[in-house]
Structure prediction request, 466 residues.
Amino acid sequence: MSLLDSLRSHVGAANVLNSGDLSAWEHDWRRRWHGKALAVVRPGSTAEVAAVVQACAAQGVSLVPQGGNTGLVGGGVPDRSGTQVLLSLQRLNRVRTIDAANLTLTAEAGCVLHHVQATAAEAGFLFPLSLAAEGSCTLGGNLATNAGGTQVLRWGNTRDLCLGLEVVTAQGQVWDGLSGLRKDNTGYDLRDLFIGSEGTLGIITAATMKLAPKPAATTTALAACGTLADCVALLNLARTRLGAGLTGFEVMGRFALDLVALHFPALPKPLPGAAWTVLLEQSDVEGEAQARERFEGLLGAALEAGCVSDAVVAESLAQSRALWHVRESIPLAQAQEGLNIKHDISVPVSAIPRFVADTDAALQAAYPGVRLVNFGHLGDGNLHYNVQAPAGTDGKRFLDEEEHRVNGIVFDAVAACGGSFSAEHGIGALKRDELAQRKSPVALQMMRAIKAALDPQGLMNPGRVL
Ligand code: FAD
Ligand code: ZN
Prediction:
């Protein structure tokens, strides 16, 4: 039997697509990678995923798993060869169970993140993972990339929220590791091996995730700071005064907000003229009035200490949402402005002011007039440090011709600060060469040994990560 016939027999002919417009699966979100799949296969259960993997393994055909296709490093689309099967997890979209007393939820990999959040909320809980792509990214993709987002400061990355996994191995066996245990020291941590492996070791089909009690209130404030050192001082003050109530701490550079004002003029323009604007989020177990009072106390102390020059506290949920909307509009405003070179870097929080000063200076020296769109999760030491061509020059040409050199400048500065060239988006195809160059040889050797042991045929998302 041909592979396609075998796949049709497992998942039904309607779920094996090999003609018509497959661009939704073959192009990535940023439209930087355009592949061609042998077929798009859409299994509807873990058993069907296992059967698809076995059929492909028997014929030596490689697989590219895909969830919501919102990944930013070209890891979830097929190559151009027309020989890879694109395995879409989107039909595995059930929340299987909620264990209220254990504070856990078990859901399938293709569940859209927003659906997981909403299901948890309906049951009276918080599922804290949150990112701007939550309307289309999937739990499986979040796990495969160990996604971060805006709540990492309080709740950690996706890895920190995961207790157990169900995985189809490269041989097509099902590993049921769906445990809701917080303590389980029984040998190597296989769960953590698959989290962040970007589809290169096996297919995640379901996961047991941690829930939290729903907070009584969530409030937001904005603060204007003169320098990044002031932002770091504010962070430490906020940590001291708000403790675990501090759930978000995002920084936005002035040029980033200028772009939002230019391209989305209807959005609010809070604290105009601030060199750096910080968005703080607080979740409170008591209530909104108490949370606002705590914010006012914090910001009063920050004004007195001199690290903040102006501040506002949101007066309603609608206002809080509007402030987050401004933050989340930065990538879109930047895209409207033209193609640019994106970096997702992390350094110790203490090194952020030095990193930005040194790297800004190095880039300005190399490219006079270059524009720096700088924003991100300052509380986690994670900046989206993006480089936009000088005004009036061709963004596409800048990206095509200068990306390699710009990356060299930025990543050398990151390394000098003890940082990472990929904080939350992963490696995929985009940063594979960087990994080979910048990761220690001993670490690479261990990674290759793990890959060879779990996927000896090299059929799981080949050409990604390693
Ligand atoms: P996909 O894009 O489909 O896949 C991503 C990778 O995971 C690929 O390598 C794929 O092969 C693999 N994969 C997918 N599903 C599985 C599976 N079930 N088993 C094994 N491998 C699998 N990321 C952050 O960390 N923080 C952010 O704040 C953030 N914001 C974003 C905002 C926007 C607007 C966008 C477009 C992206 C953002 N991202 C962010 C990128 C982030 O990686 C993705 O949004 C998300 O985690 C990927 O989920 P997905 O289902 O779309 O995965
Ligand atoms: Zn981010």
Observations:
- The CA atoms of residues 163 and 180 lie 6 Å apart.
- Residues 395-416 form the longest helix (22 residues).
- The chain is about 40% helix and 20% strand.
